[in-house]
Every structure is written in C-alpha cells, then in structure tokens.
Amino acid sequence: MSRIALAFDLGGTELRAALVGDGGNLLAFASMPTLANDGPDAVIEQIAMLAQKTCSQVPDAKPLGIGIGAPGPLDPVAGILTAPPTLAGWREVPLASRLQDRLNLPVRLENDANAAALGEWHFGAGRGAASLVFVTVSTGIGGGVISDGRIVHGRRGLAGEIGHMTITSEGDRCLCGAVGCFEAVASGTALGRRATALTKPGDGSTLRRLSREGDVTGRHVVEAARSGDETALGLIDREARWLGIGFTNLLHLYSPDIIVMGGGISYGYDLLRKPIEATIQERAMPAYRDVPVVPAQLGGHAGLVGAASLILLN
Fold first, then answer.
1. In this structure, are residues 272 and 144 in contact, taking their beta carbons and an 8 Å threshold?
2. Are residues 220 and 147 in the same domain?
3. pLDDT tens column, 284-296
4. Which of 35, 66, 94, 191 has its CA 20 to 30 A from that of 251?
5. CA dist., res. 232 & res. 216, Å (int)
C-alpha cells in the first residue's frame, strides 16, 4: 500500500477526518459536529474516536503520522493552539503533543487556511507554482501564503490573516472590532447581509424565494444571479469589485505566481471572474496584472489534503 497519512480538519462547527494517500486522494472519510463549547478534553476525545472510525474503513492502513489543520491563532512549530475564538476554553493548548501521546503517532499542526493552501499547492490548482496566495471566501475570509516554496508563518505563525486587511474606511464593523476589513465587506456573510437588506420577506423576489423568506445568504445570491436576477447580478458585481481590491493588495504584498480562490463563494467564480479581473487591471501596477486568479480544485477537502501533506511530504 502507498504512503498514508491521517488528516484532521478541526473547525468550530465540524470536525472532519480522512486517510489520505500520497497522491492526495482520500481513502476514507468521517466527520461529526465539533463539541466546540466543551473544552479541549472533549474535542481531543472526538479526534481519537474519529481516528479509530476512519482507520477502520481501511483495515490494513498504517498511517505514517497525523496532520491537523486548526483555527488560529496557533503556533505550528510548538504545536500549540493559542486562543482560537471558535473553540471555547482553548488557551495555550499543546494539541500536537497531546494527540501524539494519545494516538502514538507523530503529529504536525498547521493553521487551517495554511493547510488548505498547501493542499491546493501540492495537489490542486497551484501545482507547479513557486509562490501562491490561497484565499477562502466563505463565512469569513482567510488565507494562506506560500512564497518561494514555503508557507509564510511570521511571528508565532500569525502571518496571513488577509481577511483583516483594511481596504476601506466604511462599511459594517468586523467581528474583530475594526471597520473596513476585507472580511467585513467581501465575505459570503457580507454578501448575504447586503442582499437581505435590499429585500423583504414576502416581496416576491428571487432572493427571498430561494431563502424561503429567511435571511439571504451569499449562496442564494449566486443561485439567483445564475437565473439572471438583476438584483443578484448587481450584488455579484459589487462583491467582485471588493474581491478585486483585496486581491490587488495581495498581488502588491506577495507577488505570487497565482491566486487561488476557495470557499463557498468560489462556487460563483464564473460570475465573479470578469469584474475581479477588470478591477485588478484598473488598480494593480502593470507588472502584477498578468497573475491569474483561479478557482480552487480540491473543494472542501483542501484542508484535509493539505494537512496530510504535512506528513506525506515532510
């Protein structure tokens, strides 16, 4: 059997596990809701349970180690989760050493967005690039930066919080407390919020019909735009302009060979592409304008595949 790694994607909502082969292919998969409010002991017990469940699907599998992508802030070198806001009671938790003791396998820890960047770089849309910026546009905006073949970690592994670049002085306040963050104006949450404000329950709009008269999400906006809805198309154009501004900043900061866009809103990449490219052409210096912006290829498994690569390609 080929080299295999056991990979985990630890989210505040869902805990996902997979056995991943050395070609980036998933051999087994399992998931469960994360006990995010129950503290580290409960979640570590969940990880151990999922490890057993996943490995039982491939009885002769012998993982070389465990790679885990987790929400930051975290220290990947020390293997410590510092204080992730989506996991209650996690403060300076030595997750890597605790899992290593529990499961008797070497453990590598990485920020979840960095793990997804690694997945796309090694096995997805960024294969062959020396430098890459991965941007996930979903509930929030996160990212990972690979420069000259290495993840950019910065002090204590805190680099790459691209969702909190300030790109405007206006708009709603971000969850971090600031105004004008990339995340606050261009995330799927922000897109849905704008759509909800433009419509009302029972108004007969495509957006409210798709949302079943509840709050409109970014996904609903994409679906409505696909059907030709004028309001949704206008929202998509505005969303793409904000993304284009953020991507232009990333081009100037990191000068990557490629920008890879993932997350739930990348489902609408075909609708967003032209205005994103137009904004980059308007705002980027000429030397940066030919850098491609492409959709992610690994979908929701990018983080798992990238976490496995911490072991398989070490």
1. no
2. yes
3. 999 999 999 999 9
4. 191
5. 11
DSSP characters over 66-94: EEEEE-SSEETTTTEE---TTSTT-SSB-
Say whether both 206 and 287 belong to one domain. Answer: yes
Both 79 and 153 in one domain: the answer is: no
Are 43 and 186 in the same domain?
Answer: no
DSSP result, 201-245: TTS--HHHHHTTTS---HHHHHHHHHTT-HHHHHHHHHHHHHHHH
| Separation in Å, CA 89 to CA 47, 81, 128 | 17, 11, 40
Helices 95-103 and 40-56, interaxial angle, to 10°? 50
- How does pLDDT run across 131-171, given as a tens digit for each residue? 999 999 988 898 999 999 899 988 877 788 898 999 999 88
Which token pair is 43?
């979640």
Closest C-alpha to 143, from 256, 65, 222, 233? 256
CATH code where residue 138 lies? 3.30.420.40
Work out the burial of residue 175: count CB atoms within 10 Å of its CB; fewer than 13 is exposed, 13-18 middle, 19 or more buried: middle
Angle, helices 230-254/269-283, rounded to nearest 10 degrees? 50
Does residue 17 form part of some domain? Answer: yes
Asked if residue 124 is part of any domain, the answer here is no
Look at strands 150-151 and 141-147 and give their pairing.
antiparallel
Looking at the structure, tell me whether residues 254 and 167 fall in a common domain: yes
User: How far, in whole angstroms, is CA 136 from its chain's centroid?
Assistant: 4
Same domain, 91 and 142: no
Domain extent, residue 273, equals: 129-296
**Dihedral sign of CA atoms 216, 250, 120, 164 in order:** negative
